[in-house]
Structures are given as structure tokens and as C-alpha cells.
Design brief:
Layout lengths: L1 E8 L2 E8 L1 H18 L12 H31 L9 E4 L8 E8 L13 E6 L4 H13 L3 E4 L11 E10 L2 E14 L21 E7 L13 E15 L5 H6 L5 H35 L6 H20 L11 H28 L6 H13 L5 H10 L1 H23 L1 E6 L2 H5 L2 H8 L1
Parallel strand pairs: 5-11
Antiparallel strand pairs: 1-2, 2-4, 3-4, 6-10, 7-8, 7-10, 9-10
Helix pairs in contact: 1-2, 6-7, 7-10, 8-9, 8-10, 9-10
């Protein structure tokens, strides 16, 4: 076997590999001899099938296996002998091959860069800390009460407003014809919740209990019912009653509805949960600061192929967002501007990923099987009733399992760096802690 390095360009290497016809024939003959000892053919005793018969029947498939193994073994050998670490699977191009001739192929590979982490003890980080004050706790209790509403009849003489529940009888017709499913009795319709056809609820705002209204609407063109797609429809509606949602009182009864003994117990449980949420937000802020500092202080070439893969994933998600009308800050930007911006983001992510990976390797940071199992259990809990299917999916999908392992590894490496860094604490308001960090940067600029 002859391996020749034909090109060196940054992290890219190309090799020409030649495997002699003699080496190939020796491997083929060895495989056929192994087959001869075990194969059973009519008219021959085991182990006594003539070599010519074995070659005629199995020679083609054995040759294919030998060529495939030879390429795999030689490509690995080319990298191992030179101490090269591929970033991605090498690209193999086999030249024209004729039986009984040499096998020639070229291998293009992109390598992992040499990464030299800096001194973490010089990194300064600021951890924002917010206290759970009485005001925040009271607001949280009120939000909790608002989710535990009851309905009361509107007794005052007033018209329906958005947020009211109008109890209605209704019957609809298209061109004077009543269709199945277009009528109802005592239906509680929350005005402004967009439960019905667009335009229906708006025409009931201002109605009073006991009032009759004729509502004209046009069904959307993409409505799932074929007969109603784009159909102009008339609904005769009787408003029988108006109700309003009333939040529960913040008292012991509210606490008992959430399984707590009394309001004090609910208050303390809520305070503990808020403390955990604040601590989580605080850690995210510190992690972002750290990653920004690591990105600013480390500059090395990254494999273009890895950047392409990361960028393609980002770009695909962005296109879906734009298709759904969620342009956000990207509104008005040209495609070239967007590609340049998101390719830079992809390159930063790849560089940080390689840096964290090297830090983890040097410090023997590993993800245990117990940690992966806990992450898998938490993932399965997101799909009640389908836990078994979730476990089977991850069992059979190594890439998906790596998707659970990767963030655990990243967090462990980040924690390792934070322990070595200089971290000071700064008391901030809840508003500051929960605000998008990008807003803080914009204000600072």
C-alpha cells in the first residue's frame, strides 16, 4: 500500500492511496479459503468444495467486501500514522478499478484544529442576583389566582365586552341552506378568544343578554370543511346570558386547590420555586458572559465543513420562521446580509464547541450514564403516555442520544471554568434579571 499526501491547505488534507493488485488478491483468496471451510453446496462434502467453484460463485461479492474494507482500513491508517484528527467523515473518491488491477482512490479530509485554552483564572464574571420580594410574590399569587377562575353571571345592565362569555344559541346557513354542524345551543363563547370564524365574535361585542343578532361572516379559503371554504355565511344568534371570569381569591381555599395546607404553605412553595427560577436565570446570564469572553479571547481556524453543517441548520430554521411571518429583527434585511450574519454565528458556535470540547478533554470531564438516563427520563416525561416510544426512539437513534449528552457536557465544562474564574455578585431587580440580555447591550451602546 502506498499513501501519498498530495495537498495541504490549512485544515484540509488530500491523499492519494494505491493498494496493489497483489494485496487485494491475497485478501480475496484468504476470504474465499475461509468460506470454503464452512460453505455447504450440493454434491460436495463440507470443506471439500473446489476453490474454483467457490471463486466462481462468491468471488464477486467477496471482492466487493475486500475493496470496501481495504479503503476503510487504509484511510484510517493514513490518518493514524500522521496523528491527524478528522473533523468530519473523510470524502473518498475511487478511480476506475479493473479486476486484477491496483485500487487507487483519493481521500479529502478536514482536520480538527489545535486548540490552546487560555487561563481561566483571569476571567472576570458578574453574577446578577435578584431577591424574591413581597411585591413579586404577591404578583405571582395573583397570576396563580387568575388561572383558577370561576364564571359569574353579569347582573348589571351593560353590553358584552371582550373577555366576557356570551352564552348563545346559533344557527348558520349558506345560500339559505343549513349545513350539519352549523348550529348549537347554550354555547359558552369567550369574546375575543378567536374560537369561531374570524369576524363572528366581534359582531357580538356590544350585545346585551336577551338580544338577537344576525352575524355575517366569510369562512377562510383554507377552512378544512370543503363546503365552507370561502363561503359567505349568515348566522342567526340569540345572546341568552353574559358571564364574566372572576379570578379566585388569594386565600386558604386557593392554596387547598393546589394541594397546599394553607396560604402560608402556598406562599413558601411559590417563593422556593421563584428562587429556583431566578437562580436559573442568573446562571444563564453568567454562562452567556463566559461564552462571550471565551469567543473574544480565542481565535483559531475552524473546519469549514463543520461551519457549513451548523449554518445549514440555522438557515433552515430561519427560512421556516420567515415563512411563518416571524421575521423579527431580520425584517428588511437582504438574503446576502442574513447569510453573512448567520454564517458568523455558525462559525462562533463551532469555535466555542471545539474549545469547550478541548477543555473537557484536558480536564477529564465526562458525562455519566446516570446523567444521560436522567435526561432521558425528563425527556420522556414531556410526552405523557408515550414514554415507552420515547425510550425506544433514543435507544435506536445514537444521534438523538448525543443530542441529550451534548448540553450536559457543555454545562459541566462551563461549571468547571466558572469555578476557576473570578465571579462577583451584583444585586439587580427582577426586571433586570428577566430582561433579554440583548436589550441590556443595546442600552449600554
Amino acid at each position: 500500500m502506498n499513501i501519498t499526501e498530495t495537498s495541504t491547505d490549512g485544515l484540509k488534507r488530500e491523499f492519494k492511496v494505491v493498494i496493489s493488485a497483489q494485496d487485494i488478491e491475497e485478501k480475496v483468496k484468504g476470504r474465499l479459503d475461509e468460506l470454503r471451510q464452512t460453505v455447504q453446496l450440493p454434491g460436495f462434502r463440507p470443506g471439500k468444495v473446489p476453490a474454483a467453484v467457490i471463486r466462481k460463485r462468491y468471488g464477486g461479492s467477496v471482492l466487493s467486501e475486500v475493496l470496501e474494507d481495504a479503503i476503510g482500513d487504509s484511510s484510517r491508517q493514513a490518518l493514524t500514522e500522521r496523528g491527524l484528527r478528522p473533523a468530519l467523515q473523510p470524502k473518498i473518491e475511487v478511480g476506475k478499478y479493473e479486476e486484477n488491477g491496483d485500487l487507487e482512490y483519493t481521500m479529502a479530509v478536514e482536520l480538527l484544529p489545535d486548540v490552546e485554552p487560555g487561563d481561566f483564572s483571569g476571567i472576570e464574571l458578574e453574577r446578577p442576583v435578584a431577591e424574591v420580594d413581597d411585591k413579586a410574590l404577591t404578583e405571582a399569587l395573583e397570576r396563580l389566582a387568575a388561572t383558577n377562575t370561576t364564571q359569574e353571571t353579569v347582573t348589571e345592565d351593560r353590553a358584552a365586552e371582550n373577555g366576557d362569555i356570551a352564552v348563545i344559541d346559533f344557527a348558520g346557513t349558506v345560500n339559505g341552506e343549513a349545513l350539519p354542524g352549523m348550529d348549537g345551543k347554550d354555547y359558552p363563547l369567550e369574546l375575543g378568544a378567536n374560537q369561531f370564524v374570524p369576524g363572528f365574535e366581534e359582531q357580538l361585542v356590544g350585545a346585551k343578554a336577551g338580544e338577537h343578532r344576525t352575524v355575517n361572516v366569510t369562512f377562510p379559503e383554507d377552512y378544512p370543511h370543503e363546503q365552507l371554504k370561502g363561503a359567505a355565511t349568515v348566522f342567526e344568534v340569540d345572546v341568552k346570558e353574559l358571564r364574566k371570569s372572576v379570578p379566585a381569591k388569594v386565600d386558604d381555599e386557593l392554596a387547598k386547590s393546589f394541594g397546599m395546607e394553607n396560604l402560608d404553605a402556598l406562599r413558601e412553595a411559590l417563593r422556593d420555586r421563584m428562587k429556583q427560577e431566578y437562580a436559573s436565570l442568573s446562571r444563564l446570564r453568567v454562562k452567556r458572559q463566559l461564552l462571550d469572553k471565551l469567543a473574544d479571547s480565542h481565535s483559531f481556524e475552524v473546519p469549514a465543513g463543520m461551519v457549513d453543517i451548523e449554518f445549514n441548520g440555522i438557515w433552515e430554521r430561519l427560512q421556516q420562521e420567515l415563512k411563518n411571518g416571524n421575521a423579527g429583527e431580520d425584517a428588511g434585511k437582504s438574503e446576502d446580509e442574513l447569510k453573512a450574519e448567520y454564517r458568523a454565528i455558525a462559525e462562533r458556535r463551532v469555535r466555542l464547541g471545539l474549545l469547550l470540547s478541548e477543555i473537557g478533554r484536558r480536564n477529564n470531564i465526562e458525562v455519566t450514564q446516570d446523567e444521560v438516563n436522567r435526561a432521558l427520563i425528563n425527556e420522556a416525561r414531556r410526552f405523557p403516555g408515550q414514554e415507552r416510544q420515547v425510550f425506544e426512539f433514543f435507544k435506536q437513534n445514537q444521534q438523538a442520544l448525543e443530542g441529550l449528552r451534548a448540553p450536559i457536557f457543555e454545562d459541566k465544562v462551563v461549571d468547571h471554568i466558572i469555578e476557576a474564574a473570578k465571579v462577583s455578585e451584583k444585586t439587580v431587580s427582577v426586571e433586570e434579571l428577566t430582561r433579554d440580555p440583548d436589550e441590556d447591550q443595546a442600552q449600554a451602546a
